[in-house]
Automatic annotation (TrEMBL):
GO-annotated molecular function: beta-glucuronidase activity; carbohydrate binding
Species the sequence originates in: Artemia franciscana
A single Gene Ontology CC term: extracellular space
Keyword NADP: no
Organism lineage: Eukaryota, Metazoa, Ecdysozoa, Arthropoda, Crustacea
Membership in a protein family: Belongs to the glycosyl hydrolase 2 family.
Extent of the signal sequence: 1-17
Role according to the record: Plays an important role in the degradation of dermatan and keratan sulfates.
The protein's name in its UniProt record: Beta-glucuronidase
Length: 623
């Protein structure tokens, strides 16, 4: 096998465009207009062996239907993989092209700025407006924005063109590789495959909403908020700092803190200040209070001469701290009862879908869960908003899944992804921990300096939240754990190891969790355990792949969790997975991964009813 990573696929090297520094979610306000570009775009793939043709022939200056032979409609937001009947598009690796036209109102001409913002697109993206490049971005799961004021035509039609490449290489986050088999008996010339070391479909497309929005010339570009509460929770303090662009030195900033009914609680002014007040309504995790997820609104008002801008940020007031045996919110120890999830659904793949978001949060509440991990990449802001307002604690994970070969270039991309994630999610009360990756080859000596740098960088950007890395190597060989605040580990006793031997689960679980704690003296949590089950498969006594085996296995883990919880350092259980999900084709995957407690269509398996009983009983025991 010959490995060829980037030559064909990333033959264009793009210098990051200068843009705004903030990445605030776009919103309509007294001073801002918002216009969605979601809908049906025009789509074309590049010919397999002429990947650069769109760049060479400047497709962005023309209409796609005039330059490509095969142009089809493509929904945005959505993955493109499962939209057609064409296996070439489903499995496509390389440059694809999107385009749409839209009108810009004449009233936007003049004293305004206009921005174009993508919630995410996987992986490498280049964007043109009316044939002029406005930005590019690397990374599949985080937003990017460009000011397009000068490139737009006002009072007339405009065109946005996007080139998107989903190729993963040893330097992307996550990593992948393009393999050219050199056996000409078995493969035609030029044949290649994309390989990657993770167990979910590398869905591609414009996955999250695309917005055009306006701001005044001087505008609120970024806000950073931290909160704390006094030991008895009687006082709450909000510290904020606000970044303006285009402002004169006389510009004034005013802030009002509004409660959920819109009543003013406190006011202040200046770009950096604090608001302290008595009897705050705290942000509590689900089930720790009768009113979880309470959110205030920080209304920010910029006045710069005649120019005014308004932005409203939802914030939760809570304290967050941790020590060697636990994580504390509002000075109370928390126990995580949740799951790993995926952004995954039929047809849309990873595309944002409000019906699915609301359904999933209904199921989360039905289960009595209080948390999830954004395995194995940052989730859409539309999902994170629901976590904030439902009091669901989130372990916010970067797409550093299954990393191997830890070099300086990979580190650079990893740190950039961390920076963008923290920038996006720093103000969210639901985010209670950063996860800098999942199941790396952390037994390798190079993993030690690598992860120590990722942790230090993360703490520099955000000292207010604990940092974890989800581990799968043994406690005796792992090199990353010393740098972490919390040890999260994944293990599949009686599934991948000792398959069928349910009687071993308790012993293995207890020993391993205790060993992690004894060696590193940190809180320990199990972030994955589980078994695959095909809805409708049954047997008694249970055998693997039946729904009965899945529940029997869960019961054994529960016994172990109950013993561990009493020992003080064990802080949570997250089953793998919330729902069945799509994976690459493989002989160990039967039409996807079936460890969901819900099927992919969200119908409950018996495992869901059992988990609901368990999570409800944990809460009752606390009362
Ligand atoms: C893991 C991975 C997860 C997989 C899971 C499995 O350890 O973290 O991404 O889907 O195992 O089902 O094999």
């Amino acid at each position: 096998m010959k490995l060829c990573f980037s030559l064909i696929f990333f033959s264009k090297i793009f210098v990051a465009a200068n843009g705004p520094q903030g990445i605030l979610y776009p919103q309509q306000s007294e001073s801002r207009e918002l216009f969605s570009l979601d809908g049906v775009w025009t789509f074309a793939i590049s010919p397999k062996f002429d990947q650069d043709i769109g760049f060479k022939n400047q497709w962005y200056r023309k209409e796609l239907k005039k330059v490509s032979k095969y142009v089809i409609p493509m929904p945005v937001p959505s993955s493109y993989n499962d939209i057609t009947q064409n296996a070439t598009i489903r499995d496509y690796v390389g440059w694809v092209w999107y385009e749409r036209t839209f009108f810009v109102p004449a009233r936007w001409r003049g004293e305004q700025r206009v921005f174009l913002r993508f919630g995410s697109a996987n992986y490498e993206t280049v964007v043109w407006i009316n044939g002029v490049k406005v930005t590019n971005h690397s990374g599949g799961y985080l937003p990017f924005v460009a000011e397009v004021t000068k490139q737009l035509s006002y009072g007339s039609e405009n065109k946005v063109t996007v080139a998107l490449n989903n190729t993963l290489t040893p330097l992307t986050i996550p990593q992948g590789r393009i393999v050219f088999p050199n056996n000409t008996d078995r493969y035609p010339p030029g044949y290649f495959i994309q390989e990657y070391n993770f167990d979910f479909t590398n869905y591609a497309g414009i996955h999250r909403p695309v917005y055009l929005y306006t701001t005044p010339r001087s505008y609120i570009d970024d806000v950073t908020v931290t909160t704390e509460t006094s030991e008895d929770n009687y006082f709450g303090t909000i510290r904020y700092s606000i970044l303006c662009q285009g402002c004169s030195k006389d510009a004034m900033l005013y802030t009002d803190l509004l409660d959920e009914d819109g009543a003013n609680v406190a006011s202040n002014f200046g770009p950096k200040n604090k608001i302290s007040f008595k009897r705050p309504k705290l942000w509590w995790p689900n089930l720790m209070h009768e009113r979880p997820g309470y959110l205030y609104t920080l209304k920010i008002h910029l006045k710069d001469g005649d120019v005014e801008d308004f932005y409203r940020l939802k914030i939760g007031v809570r304290s967050l701290s941790w020590n060697s045996s636990g994580i504390f919110i509002n000075h109370q120890k928390v126990y995580f009862q949740g799951f790993g999830k995926h952004e995954d659904f039929l047809i849309k793949g990873r595309g944002v879908d409000y019906s699915l978001i609301v359904k999933d949060f209904n199921l989360i509440n039905w289960l009595g869960a209080n948390s999830f991990r954004t395995s194995h990449y940052p989730y859409a802001e539309e999902i994170m908003d629901f976590a904030d307002k439902n009091g669901i604690m989130v372990i916010d994970e970067i797409p550093g899944v299954g990393l191997d070969h830890f070099g300086a270039d990979l580190l650079k991309n990893h740190l950039e992804a961390m920076k963008e994630l923290i920038h996006r999610d720093k103000n969210r009360p639901s985010v209670v921990m950063w996860s800098i990756g999942n199941e790396p080859q952390s037994q390798k000596p190079e993993a030690a300096p690598y992860y120590s740098q990722v942790v230090n960088f993360t703490k520099l950007l955000d000292p207010t939240r604990p940092v974890t890395l989800v581990l799968s190597r043994g406690y005796f060989e792992d090199k990353a754990a010393p740098f972490l605040d919390v040890i999260c580990f994944n293990r599949y006793y009686s599934w991948y190891s000792d398959t069928g031997h349910l009687e071993l689960i308790q012993q293995q679980l207890l020993n391993e969790a205790r060993n992690w704690h004894n060696k590193f003296r940190k809180p320990v949590m199990m972030t994955e355990y589980g078994a695959g089950s095909i809805a409708g498969f049954h047997s008694d006594p249970p055998v693997v792949w039946t729904e009965d085996y899945q529940t029997a296995l869960m019961k054994e883990y529960f016994k172990g969790f109950d013993i561990l919880r009493k020992e003080g350092f064990f802080i949570g259980e997250m089953i793998w997975n919330f729902a069945d999900f799509g994976t690459p084709q493989g002989s160990t995957r039967v039409f996807g991964n079936h460890k969901g407690i819900f099927a992919r269509d969200r119908s409950p398996k018996p495992a869901a009813h059992l988990l609901k009983q368990r999570y409800e009983s944990i809460v009752t025991a606390l009362k």
